């Protein structure tokens, strides 16, 4: 791992997670009897059509408002509360419009009253390709640049549990591949839950793959080779096709 992306402190052991239960929104069930295990120290990828509750699952793990009612349990293998150990990247970049790139990347530390590690922040900003834009505010950045700022911010948090909701969706193909590789490198050893609509992304990054659909949750066996996988490897391409068919309601 590059020292430019190395964490500021030793990583606390990343636990396995589990979410079980039912969720209702506006009196209607969004999912029922869900049992989602998240393995420790690896990437779990959750795919599925829009509207089945993937982002809701992330918000439940993070302890955020969901606008609905959850009847179930969220637990960690070490018995410690989950929400206080999470770094969360939402679909929207949620950048503070009055702060420049450095200010947004270090926002978490500032909100906690901590002195931010500016050297590490600038190194991460360079790694996401924004070294020439550190003084710019969000209004001066493109959508893809804003998403890279948000990615640098979540990587800066150095938490054992990381929740990512479509973190690369606004990026072009080349930048997306580069940011996938960066995130995978920096988040080594963390427990990561990635929500994505992209089968290729899930196969490239995932140690464990799940599809959430209207009729429930399905586990799909990941390729035998470890991530991060080559996009043109035969088993990667075969699994992409299987996931695509599964997302269309055909057997995976």
UniProtKB/TrEMBL annotation:
Cross-referenced SMART domains: AAA
PROSITE patterns (UniProt xref): ABC_TRANSPORTER_1, ABC_TRANSPORTER_2
Bilayer-spanning residue ranges: none
Keywords attached to this entry: ATP-binding, Nucleotide-binding, Transport
Listed InterPro entries: AAA+_ATPase (IPR003593), ABC_transporter-like_ATP-bd (IPR003439), ABC_transporter-like_CS (IPR017871), ABC_transporter_ATP-bind (IPR050166), P-loop_NTPase (IPR027417)
Segments forming a coiled coil: none
GO molecular function: ATP binding; ATP hydrolysis activity
One Pfam family linked to the record: ABC_tran
Domain ABC transporter: 12-239
Keyword Cell inner membrane tagged: no
Family matches, as PANTHER family: ALIPHATIC SULFONATES IMPORT ATP-BINDING PROTEIN SSUB 2 (PTHR42788:SF19), TAURINE IMPORT ATP-BINDING PROTEIN-RELATED (PTHR42788)
Family: Belongs to the ABC transporter superfamily.
Identification of the protein by name: Putative hydroxymethylpyrimidine transport system ATP-binding protein
Organism from which the protein derives: Stappia indica
């Amino acid at each position: 791992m590059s020292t430019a992306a190395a964490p500021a402190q030793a990583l606390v052991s990343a636990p396995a997670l589990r979410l079980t239960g039912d969720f209702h929104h506006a009196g209607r069930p969004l999912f029922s009897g869900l049992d989602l295990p998240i393995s420790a120290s690896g990437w779990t990828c959750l795919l599925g059509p829009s509207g089945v509750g993937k982002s809701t699952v992330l918000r439940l793990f993070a302890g955020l408002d969901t606008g609905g009612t959850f009847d179930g349990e969220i637990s960690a293998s070490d018995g410690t509360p989950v929400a206080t150990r999470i770094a969360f990247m939402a679909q929207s970049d949620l950048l503070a419009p009055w702060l420049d790139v450095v200010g947004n990347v270090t926002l978490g530390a500032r909100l906690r009253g901590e002195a931010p590690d500016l050297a590490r922040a600038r190194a991460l900003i360079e790694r996401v390709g924004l070294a020439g834009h550190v003084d710019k505010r969000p209004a001066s950045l493109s959508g893809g640049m804003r998403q890279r700022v948000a990615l640098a911010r979540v990587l800066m948090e150095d938490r054992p549990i990381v929740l990512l909701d479509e973190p690369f969706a606004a990026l072009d193909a080349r930048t997306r591949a580069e940011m996938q590789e960066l995130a995978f490198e920096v988040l080594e050893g963390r427990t990561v839950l990635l929500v994505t609509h992209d089968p290729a992304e899930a196969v490239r990054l995932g140690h464990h793959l799940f599809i959430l659909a209207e009729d429930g949750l399905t586990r799909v066996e990941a390729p035998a080779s470890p991530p991060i996988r080559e996009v043109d490897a035969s088993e990667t391409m075969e699994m992409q096709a299987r996931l695509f068919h599964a997302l269309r309601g055909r057997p995976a």
